[in-house]
Amino acid sequence: VVVDPMHYTGGLISLIHKDFNMALLISSIFVFVVLLFSFRDIFISLLAFMPMFLSWYVVQGWMAILGLSFNMINIVISTFIFGIGVDYSIFVMKGLIEAQRQEESRLLEYHKVAIFFSAFVLIVVMGAMLFAKHPTIVSIGNCALIGMISTILITYTLQPLLFRWLMKWPYMKRRVER
């Protein structure tokens, strides 16, 4: 037991798996605080944070539907995917804000095109894992694809929809245009 690496690795994995929700909560709070400092508005920060928050539940739901379980590698990949999702969300939010402040801003279009190509490459690479023979690699590919697709869909559809809905309120419009 003293020199058995499997014993320590198994203990570490069970500890991380047990405390994963706490780690997720702490990292989510940290990301939200950084968004709050960056955007200086709680509503905009919540909108920028939303794709990461919602896509986590979409991934959990689809993995439960497909009968997949989280393992250590899936947790690391999920963190990677949600980090990319936050980046995409920030780019879209910056483009939406810039478009709201100026009548004719093309920043949102440029960001969406860049996000599309980045996501396309990642989806192709992660999708290639689905053809692997090892079940863990297939599980990683499934988790990454579900996370990536849900993050992109939420960032491209729900985030702009809610932003434009909030801009119908004069109070919110004044806060963004200042």
Describe the structure.
With 178 residues, the protein is mostly helical. It has seven helices and no strands. The protein is elongated and about 65 Å long. The model has no long low-confidence stretch (mean pLDDT 84).
What's the β-strand tally?
0
**Which stretches are low in confidence, meaning pLDDT under 50 for 5 or more residues running?**
none
The chain-level mean pLDDT equals 84
Give the assembly state of these chains. Answer: single chain
- Our estimate of the beta-strand percent is under 5%
Classify the helix fraction into a percent range.
Answer: over 70%
Main sheet: strands, sense, barrel: none
Kindly report how far apart the N and C termini lie: 63 Å
Shape: elongated
Helix/strand structural class:
mainly alpha
The tally of helices reads 7
- Give me the Rg, rounded: 19 Å
Order of helices and strands: HHHHHHH
